[in-house]
Design brief:
Elements (H helix, E strand, L loop, with lengths): L3 H6 L7 E4 L3 E5 L7 E7 L17 H12 L6 E4 L14 E6 L14
Antiparallel strand pairs: 1-2, 2-3, 3-5, 4-5
C-alpha cells in the first residue's frame, strides 16, 4: 500500500511541492514546527533510515537540503532532522527529513522556536 508521501508524489492527494528531482520531492509540512518546515521525501518508498540499502549513493536528501536552504534564503542556518522508527517520532513509514529554519531554533531539549 502506498504511503501518504507516495500519494502526494503521485499527485493523488495535494501537497505544496517546493523542490523536486529524480531522487526526492520536498513539500511544505502541513503542521510546521518553524516558520520554514519542509519535508524532503525519497521517491523510493524506503520505510526508514534503518532500511536504507548499504549499496548506492545516499546523499540525495543532503544535496536537496543544501539546494532548498539556498533557494529559500536560509543564510543564517537551518536544521535537518531524520526520525527513524516510532520511538523517535516517525509517523509516516517513508524515509524523509525535516528541514527547519526561518527563525532562531531552540537547542535540543528546549521547546520550540525563539522569536
Amino acid at each position: 500500500m502506498a504511503t501518504l508521501f507516495t500519494k502526494i508524489i503521485n499527485g493523488e492527494i495535494p501537497g505544496e511541492i517546493v523542490y523536486q528531482n529524480e531522487h526526492v520531492v520536498a513539500i511544505k509540512d502541513i503542521q510546521p514546527m518553524a516558520p520554514v518546515h519542509v519535508l524532503i521525501v525519497t521517491r523510493a518508498e524506503i520505510p526508514g533510515l534503518s532500511e536504507l540499502p548499504d549499496a548506492g549513493d545516499h546523499t540525495h536528501i543532503l544535496n536537496a537540503a543544501k539546494k532548498i536552504g539556498e533557494q529559500l534564503g536560509l543564510t543564517s542556518g537551518y536544521r535537518l532532522v531524520i526520525n527513524n522508527g516510532v520511538d523517535a517520532g516517525q509517523t509516516v513509514p517513508h524515509l524523509h527529513a525535516h528541514l527547519l529554519g526561518g527563525a532562531k531554533l531552540g537547542g535540543f531539549g528546549e521547546e520550540g522556536v525563539e522569536h
